[in-house]
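step 4 of 6: structure.
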Amino acid sequence: MPGKRGNGRVALVTGANRGIGLEVCRQLGRLGNEIIMTGRDPRALGDAASLLARESLTVHPELMDVSSRESVRECGRRLGVKGIRVDVLVNNAGVYPPGDLLSVSEETIREAMEINFLGSLRTAQAFLPGMLQRNYGRVVNISSGYGSFAEGLEGPAPYSLSKAALNAMTLKLASEVRGNVKVNAACPGWVRTRMGGPEAPRSVEEGADTIVWLATLPDDGPSGGLFRDRQQVDW
Ligand code: NAP
């Protein structure tokens, strides 16, 4: 019966097929959560799910392209039909388009906003109502220091703007939810992934740590903050 094994929690992770998302699935799975691994590429998703299944973790691969409202809704519908609820949502899927504001195309800005910002809003709209009904939920939006006003909004403009919007959404959403539902953002630091590149100082294990911590917060844990290395940092 879905959701009844392990610690009884079901966690959905976007962009679960590689990088930080895959490692978050692994760590949450090891803690006894049942994992809904979502991704947009069926083959890559299937390979990633098989990998974690071979590690004896309970995983369900589900197609979801967060840039498509229909794809997110469809995934929600399929899970509903299967009777699988979502207790934990990790908005990890992301892209890193380059560009300066004075020369970047609107299409590039749109791509970053569609995936990094609207993608997270779509999944929140799909899965938060169920959390509110059941009075339990943990939402973790994977942000970046590049989206922080306090840290100077550095990095490529499309990325930086989209993560700043994600930060704003995190704060706003946290103010809209009630009960035992927590919404936070995490900065994983600079991590060795396809996005972060081979020179990055952090492993995926290190990058996933704060995300997993926020995804498993106790009932008296914080909500509405941005965290790095398990410490709250300024927006
Ligand atoms: P990554 O290795 O490039 O992985 C990105 C993941 O997002 C992939 O699984 C990718 O799927 C998925 N994705 C992209 N667009 C998608 C879409 N439309 N629908 C569903 N999935 C989509 O990057 P990463 O380093 O693990 O990054 C994960 C998160 O951490 C991102 O939000 C990123 O901004 C954030 N972050 C990373 C760093 C870093 O140093 N690495 C630093 C700060 C924040 P495909 O395989 O199909 O492309």
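step 5 of 6: annotate
 - Residues 14-15, 17-21, 39-41, 44, 65-67, 92-95, 115, 142, 144, 187-188, 190-191, 193-196, 200 surround NAP (CB under 6 Å).
 - Residues 168 and 235 are 9 Å apart (CA to CA).
step 6 of 6: archive
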